[in-house]
Amino acid sequence: MPSALPLADPAPDDGMLPPSVIDGAEHRDLGVYLHVPFCRVRCGYCDFNTYTADEIRGVKQSDFADQAIAEVALAARVLRDSGLPSRPVSTVFFGGGTPTLLPTDDLARMLAAVRDTFTLAPDAEVTTEANPDSIDAAGLQRLAAAGFTRVSVGMQSAVPHVLAVLERTHDPENVPRVVQAAKEAGLQVSLDLIYGTPGESADDWARSLDAALACEPDHISAYALIVEEGTKLARQIARGEVPPVDDDLHAAFYEAADARLTAAGYHWYEVSNWARGTADAPAHRSRHNRAYWLGHDWWGVGPGAHSHVGGVRWWNVKHPAAYAQRLAAGVSPAAGRETLDAETRRVERVLLQTRLVEGLPTDALTPLGRRAVAQLIADELVEPGLALRGTVVLTLRGRLLADAVVRRLLPD
Questions:
Q1: How far is the C-alpha of 223 from the C-alpha of 246, rounded, in Å?
Q2: Is residue 156 located within the same domain as residue 77?
Q3: Domain count of the chain?
Q4: Element (H or E) spanning 126, and its range?
Q5: Is 239 exposed, middle or buried (0-12, 13-18, 19+ CB in 10 A)?
Q6: CATH number of the domain that 166 lies in?
Q7: Pairing state of beta strands 219-224 and 188-195?
Q8: What does the pLDDT look like over 184-226, one tens digit per residue?
Q9: What is the DSSP letter of 43?
Q10: What share of the chain is helix, strand, coil (3-state, %, to 5)?
Q11: In this predicted structure, which of 17-21, 37-41, 296-300 has the lowest mean pLDDT?
């Protein structure tokens, strides 16, 4: 979640949503995202709304669970009073920051609040992010007993000098131990990787892929490093202390990842995500993230967290102290919101669904956008047979140029 919040309309103190959110609600899943904004160390590349202990004097991590639980109660009240139908929660995701810096009992209490307030679907997916040095076997067992089903481990790289540039402090040898402990607890496991770090070689990236695959996780995410303005890494590159990111290497690393993961039995289902199993068996895909890409409903709990319900998007105040103060005063922590018009929602659908293996129906495109498909086929950016049958699905080359494909599908 980026640290900068967009400018938009003020959000009402009671959090109430407009009547338009009711339309089609029965066909949309409901998810809950809980943003735990605490980190032991701020990584130089990170632009998320996170805080170390030195940055949040006067804010107690030990108070956060109760604050989040208060927002869960607010969420239920707002959704009910806004006329939305009662729906069980399909997915819960604890992100951050480092959620597992909190005691596992606090994470369990927050999950219990979601369960008791909304009920969970019988097959609900419940994920927490974790750093390899922030959780142990006993903690993973406690999370599984509390109802967590999945852990997403921030591996990023297996190479010490790459981790050093990213300012990741964990021991890469901890990763296989954590993965094995999670499996023994009955949890599904995802590993997050970052490629294209300044100074990372093709051999370094191959080493990280091999180390990740040796753990035999259920799911792997591989993200190109984006150097965000205002981060420490951006300043280091500007001063010449760290070499700039090489976009050509990004493409080569992505192709290497896709080839290696596919050969190992993982199938891409979103441009940056691969899951074990067969191409048509979605058991290990991240259902929570897919809900974002498909435009379902989710309530974001925590400082700076974003929410979306029925075409209305809002975001909470950023600082943990301001967040706590608003909840203590009995008002919504939302800082601003926007109501998306039909055209904006269509454009976002094109942006997001184009990235999925199921692709985008061409009937979501304007006549100009549909005419662009023929040239995309000629340029080998979309699968020809599927496009001719009415669905835009990216080829490997198209995944490398996904943003360019979207621009051509959304002509001015």
A1: 14
A2: yes
A3: 2
A4: strand 120-130
A5: exposed
A6: 3.20.20.70
A7: parallel
A8: 999 999 999 999 999 999 999 999 999 999 999 999 999 999 8
A9: -
A10: 40, 20, 35
A11: 37-41
Domain span holding position 362:
341-412
Count of helices and strands (H, E) across the chain = 15, 14
pLDDT of 1? 46
Please write the tens of the pLDDT for every residue from 84-96: 999 999 999 999 9
pTM for the model stands at 0.95
Q: Answer yes or no: do 186 and 100 share one domain.
A: yes
pLDDT recorded at residue 5 = 52
**pLDDT surpassing 80 at residue 54:** no
Structure tokens at 163: 């981790």
How far apart (Å, rounded) are the C-alpha atoms in residues 60 and 37?
A: 12
pLDDT at 2 over 50: no
The total of other beta-carbon atoms located within 10 Å of residue 55's CB is 14
**What span, in angstroms and rounded, lies between the C-alpha atoms of 160 and 43?**
14
- pLDDT of 114 reads 98
**300 close to 91: Cβ distance less than 8 angstroms:** no
Cα–Cα distance, 133 to 154 (Å, whole number): 10
Mean pLDDT across 338-354: 96
Supply the DSSP symbol for 35.
E
Give which of 46, 372, 30 is closest to 231, Cα–Cα: 46
Same domain for 266 and 409, yes or no, is no
Helix (H) or strand (E) holding 128: strand 120-130
Assigned token pair, 286: 């991240």
Structure tokens of 383?
């699968």
Task: Determine the average pLDDT of the residues in 24-50.
Answer: 92
d(CA 70, CA 324): 10
> Phi/psi at 283 (nearest 5 deg)?
-55, -35
List the beta bridge partners of residue 175.
none
Q: How far is CA 385 from CA 291, 359, 374, 377, in A?
A: 27, 13, 11, 9
